[in-house]
Structures are given as C-alpha cells and as structure tokens.
Amino acid sequence: MVDVVSMSKALTFVTSNRHKFKEAERIAKEHGVKLRWRNISYAEIQSDNLADIARVGSQLAAMFIRAPCFVEDAGLFIEALRGFPGPYSAYVFKTIGNDGILRLMEGVDNRAAEFRSVVGYCESFSNSPKIFEGRAKGTIALEVRGKGGFGYDPIFLPHGGDGRTFAEMSTDEKNELSHRGEAIRKLVKWYVEVKEGEGIK
Ligand code: IMP
Question: Which DSSP letter does residue 87 get?
Fold first, then answer.
C-alpha cells in the first residue's frame, strides 16, 4: 500500500532515454518511491565492462547535477556472436540496427542471448557508487515483431514469456521479465531499506 508519507521518498534517474525512465518509474511507484527524471546526457567511458561504465557515469552525473542520482547502462549479449554487441550495443544499434543483427544471425541455430543491465547509484563525486545488476535470458527472434519498447526489444524473446517479443509487451509485462526490471527493483528495495534505516521520510 503506497501512502503519502512514503511517496515523499524520491530518487533521481539521469537518462536521456524516456523509455528507460518510464520502465523505472513504474517499479519505483510500486515501492512507494517517486522517481524524478533528469533528461540529460552524461559522458560515458569506453569499457568492455558495463559496471565500470555505470560506476563512472553515476559519479559524473552526481557531480553534474550536484545531487544523489543513478544512471543505468545496458547491453545485448548474443551467444553465437561471442557476446557481441555487448558493451557496444548502442553503436551497433545506431549503425546496423535490428535488421543488421538478424542478417548476422541468418542460418544460425543457436539464438541464445542475454540482456544485461547495470545501475550505478552515487551520492556525490567523492562517494563510491553502489552497483545493482539484472539479467534477462532469451533468444533472438527470426523477424522484427512489435511496436512497443525501444532498441532491440522487437527482436528479443525473453525466457519465461509466452512467445512475444519485449516490443509486443506492456511496460509492466516487460518489467516482470527484463534485465532493467531486475536491476531497478534491487536499487529501489535497497533505497527504501536504507532510507528507512536512516529515518528519512
Ligand atoms: P544504453 O544502455 O542506452 O547504452 O543501451 C545500449 C543499446 O542497447 C542501445 O542501442 C539501446 O537501444 C539498447 N537497449 C538498452 N536497453 C534495452 C532494452 O531494454 N531493450 C532493447 N534495447 C535496449
């Protein structure tokens, strides 16, 4: 049950992706936390490691907005392509897109893939960030399907689903099964516990 007092807890999500904000906002609300959106881009380091990207990103974001906040970095890891595009998912999406991935997967039987999400929460530049991770296992579809979501959603069939791609699901349905849903739920649960422990209302 969400009451007015607990809704006064607020977290800030720094992202220029409105889809990510919408997904996170639904989860935060379920836990009585209000999510504020700072729609800005922050500098992202190049790394093979999503956690490093989120760690440094959250420090830069906290320094930039001068307030505690979190950022999130995600990637699609395709088994038959040895984890490609992984940390380079944004560049690959911009350049070859879903059609390009489907072409790379033509004639490939092993369609196993995994989305990974890493959230970095940071109070200030001098604080070490807290990291929360989520994963969603699934397969790469044979064709693009669905109009919802964003990015690789139309080609990703999550395990535990009913044969629909993420792009064919509602935000709540995607959140139940997704990498970001898992990572954001971990963040929000931790935040509620810590803030309650600190007696902040
Ligand atoms: P980033 O986390 O914004 O750097 O995302 C890297 C790339 O993966 C971008 O091209 C996104 O569109 C894509 N991506 C990230 N999260 C998701 C998701 O939940 N579904 C589909 N594509 C995603």
Answer: T
Least Cα distance to 136 among 176, 86, 189, 104 occurs for: 176
What are the chain's domains? 4-197 (3.90.950.10)
This model's pTM is above 0.90: yes
167, 153 contact by CB (below 8 A): yes
Helices (H), 31-178: 50-65, 89-95, 97-104, 171-177
Mutation choice for ligand 1 from 45, 147, 152, 165, CB with most ligand atoms inside 8 A: 152
Sign of CA dihedral 64, 188, 126, 135: negative
109 is annotated as an active-site residue: no
Q: Calculate ∠ Cα 147-181-172, nearest 5°.
A: 50
Name the band, by pLDDT with cuts 50, 70 and 90, for residue 7: very low
- Catalytic: which of 73, 99, 109, 172? 73
Residue 61, pLDDT > 50, answer yes
